[in-house]
């Protein structure tokens, strides 16, 4: 592991958990520069501002993301920077899909601090596919979701935001108002989004993007055994 100071981004919408992760990282990387993001827009802004990121700790349920969409976008734009996905949802299928979509590791939010630190150190050192104490032998990502993830990875930040608002059911004029641009600009973005997704309508686009959704298990604290 390099002795150079690390640049690490913590992306989670809960301030207390971001603070907890800082405490986890502190003993490992005393000289590291830690950045924070509370939603996908802030995550994307941090990526632009800090191209030298060594690691992303990413909450699965980030505002502005649809399931694995934020993971897919980040992996596409920063393929050399590993991602550890963190979630209270430690269901085996969720873990497997996260790894399939490019996460280097997966941690439950209820994981022991030592397990978290071990996973982080190993990922920084170059290991991949880590899921300490979790079972990832469930069904993985579908071919459709992998294709959609590849398309999302090619979207610009603005196109990603438009696609996310499309899934929320907003009309072009509503998206234009929210992003403070002309409706013609949104129509141009939609054309490019449809092309990259290989679809021809808003309904088809929403259905395609929905393949990245994650359903919450009934009990987040007791993932079913395989």
Automatic annotation (TrEMBL):
<dbReference type="GO" id="GO:0003677">
    <property type="term" value="F:DNA binding"/>
</dbReference>
<protein>
    <submittedName>
        <fullName>DNA-binding response regulator</fullName>
    </submittedName>
</protein>
<dbReference type="InterPro" id="IPR051015">
    <property type="entry name" value="EvgA-like"/>
</dbReference>
<feature type="modified residue" description="4-aspartylphosphate">
    <location>
        <position position="59"/>
    </location>
</feature>
<dbReference type="InterPro" id="IPR036388">
    <property type="entry name" value="WH-like_DNA-bd_sf"/>
</dbReference>
<dbReference type="Pfam" id="PF00072">
    <property type="entry name" value="Response_reg"/>
</dbReference>
<dbReference type="GO" id="GO:0000160">
    <property type="term" value="P:phosphorelay signal transduction system"/>
</dbReference>
<dbReference type="InterPro" id="IPR058245">
    <property type="entry name" value="NreC/VraR/RcsB-like_REC"/>
</dbReference>
<feature type="domain" description="Response regulatory">
    <location>
        <begin position="7"/>
        <end position="124"/>
    </location>
</feature>
<dbReference type="InterPro" id="IPR001789">
    <property type="entry name" value="Sig_transdc_resp-reg_receiver"/>
</dbReference>
<keyword id="KW-0238">DNA-binding</keyword>
<dbReference type="InterPro" id="IPR000792">
    <property type="entry name" value="Tscrpt_reg_LuxR_C"/>
</dbReference>
<dbReference type="InterPro" id="IPR011006">
    <property type="entry name" value="CheY-like_superfamily"/>
</dbReference>
<dbReference type="InterPro" id="IPR016032">
    <property type="entry name" value="Sig_transdc_resp-reg_C-effctor"/>
</dbReference>
<keyword id="KW-0597">Phosphoprotein</keyword>
<feature type="domain" description="HTH luxR-type">
    <location>
        <begin position="148"/>
        <end position="213"/>
    </location>
</feature>
<dbReference type="Pfam" id="PF00196">
    <property type="entry name" value="GerE"/>
</dbReference>
<dbReference type="GO" id="GO:0006355">
    <property type="term" value="P:regulation of DNA-templated transcription"/>
</dbReference>
